[in-house]
Amino acid sequence: MTDAPLRRSWVISAASLALWAVSVLSLVGYMAVIGRAGVQRQAADQLSRRALETNPEPLIVLLGSTLALGACAVLSLLYYTYAQWRHVKRRRRRLESESEPDADLGVERT
């Protein structure tokens, strides 16, 4: 991984996967808090009602951000795979072009 764009795509993929993992963990944590006892559900409902007055439902926002970050993670992994494939293809072409003059002379590389 000496190619700068390849390294950059790896960093972007790792960051997007980390953000997605944090989002999934926070969604699971939020669901665990809401899914508990009735008293906690009532407290969560009151918080949700207060939040609805000013902002959208926190669960909806969290679910939407988790889905969006998951899509970004998938796209960044696809781009990273494409960048690796392109890097390997360029390297193979470069190695083949270096070995062609030796093939004309009848010299084999081992």
Give structural notes.
The protein is an all-alpha fold and 110 residues long. The protein has one domain. Helices cover 86% and strands 0% of the residues. The chain is built from 3 helices and no strands. Helix 1 (4-34) packs antiparallel against helix 3. It starts with a helix and ends in a 6-residue tail after the last helix.
Secondary structural class: mainly alpha
Total helix count?
3
* Low-confidence region ranges: none
| Helix-strand topology string | HHH
Number of strands: 0
What percent of the residues sit in helical stretches (DSSP H or I)? over 70%
Question: How much strand content do the residues show?
Answer: under 5%
Distance between the termini: 24 Å
Query: What coarse outline follows from CA principal-axis ratios?
Result: rod-shaped
On the 0 to 100 scale, the average pLDDT is 79
> In the residues, how many domains can be counted?
1
Radius of gyration: 25 Å
What about the largest sheet? Answer: none
Key traits:
0% strand; rod-shaped; 86% helix; 110 residues; mainly alpha
Offer a quick outline of the entry.
The protein has one domain (about 5-105).
What's the helix and strand layout?
Blueprint: H1 4-34, H2 38-54, H3 58-104
